[in-house]
Amino acid sequence: MTDPLVPDSTPPQGQPAPLTGQTPADRAAMPLADPAGAATDQRSQWRDVWAQFRRHRGAMVALMVFLLILLFVLAGPWLWSLDATFVDIRARNKGPSWAHPLGTDQLGRDTLARLMIGGRTSIAVGMTAMIIAVMLGSLIGILAGFYRRLDAPLSRLIELFLALPLLPLLLLMVTLFREPLAKNFGAGPGTFLLIVVAIGATSWMQAARIVRGDVLGLKEREFILAARSIGTPSGRMMRRHVLPNVLSPIMVAATLGIASAIITESALSFLGLGFPPDFPTWGRLLFDAIPQMQNYPMRVVLPGALISLTVLTVNYIGDGLRDALDPRIRGR
Q1: CA dist 191 to 50, 111, 269, Å?
Q2: 284, 277 in Cβ contact below 8 A?
Q3: Residue 225: exposure state from Cβ atoms within 10 A (0-12, 13-18, ≥19)
Q4: Tens digits of per-residue pLDDT, 35-66?
Q5: C-alpha 57, offset from chain centre
Q6: Which run of H or E residues covers position 211?
Q7: SS3 call for 110
Q8: Beta bridge partners of 104
């Protein structure tokens, strides 16, 4: 029989038992909270990033223009079905007409079709080379900043690559490896592989230096010290804590890398060391227009304007991403 002076400790039906009297092992065995809350917080954070990005008017205008450029080079060839490599000598050096809205070049090839296909190749080169450069630079930067024993040799490696003359090095790589790759993969795919690897392998240093500097300051923060104190492995610490917090400089370096890769590819093609004549790019169009530049200036203006507009929009998008991903600015 229960003593009426002693309160009943039995919990009501349907409610969990109180924690009083439980051992630490019992409390550790209890189920954790539902991870849906963490997912909601993550979605809320990305909504804040998007809201901050939309406040940057220049970045929003640049994003719309860049999407139009992508639509022009990706969907344009489906709507304008003329072959960019078709040679029609009878229609060479024609002005704008219904059949050729932007005219033809010295071999009778349609300029509009070549601008579309050339833009697709140039943007693909920029994207692929950027991915290679950012992945390599972020890896080296995180390792150099997080591990003290690797900081000195990796920093010397970064300085070594920064001291190299990049354009002569690119010219040497293209001259040495273009023919073997063209024999094994074909002229177009082999040149594409060579150019993206050469640009990516020679443009990762800026991303590595930026990421290394952020990691050096980040690894002394309280949450990193707390994670280290409870024995969190270094690999998990870098994936869960370091990498998400250096995402902002990585994104900015990625956007700058796209612009730099497009300009580098255009420079190589302009010098005649890029893609073959039947594989148009914006830089190749500039190279082909040099002999007729005085008589037909629009052949230089059009690809040059597209290159400049693409680089400008990508830089503005990177500026907006930098502000949106920076937590010190996002809360304003």
Answers
A1: 38, 22, 11
A2: yes
A3: exposed
A4: 444 445 556 666 777 777 788 888 899 999 99
A5: 21
A6: helix 205-218
A7: strand
A8: 110
Judge whether 242 and 146 are in contact, CB under 8 Å.
Answer: yes
> What CA–CA distance (Å, rounded) separates 193 from 178?
10
Report which residue type is found at 28: A
Closest C-alpha among 311, 215, 233, 258 to residue 124: 258
User: Which of 253-262, 273-282, 310-319 comes out lowest in average pLDDT?
Assistant: 273-282
pLDDT score of 128: 93
> Which residues, including other chains, have CB under 8 Å from residue 305's CB and lie 6 or more apart?
none
Q: Is 267 exposed, middle or buried (0-12, 13-18, 19+ CB in 10 A)?
A: middle
pTM of the model: 0.77
Q: What gap in Å lies between CA 328 and CA 321, rounded to an integer?
A: 13
Give all domains of the chain, ordered by start, each with its CATH number: 128-211+246-329 (1.10.3720.10)
Phi, psi (deg, nearest 5) at residue 42: -65, -45
d(CA 70, CA 58): 18
Which range of 54-58, 67-71, 88-92, 239-243 scores highest in mean pLDDT? It is 67-71
| Separation of alpha carbons 265 and 259, rounded Å | 10
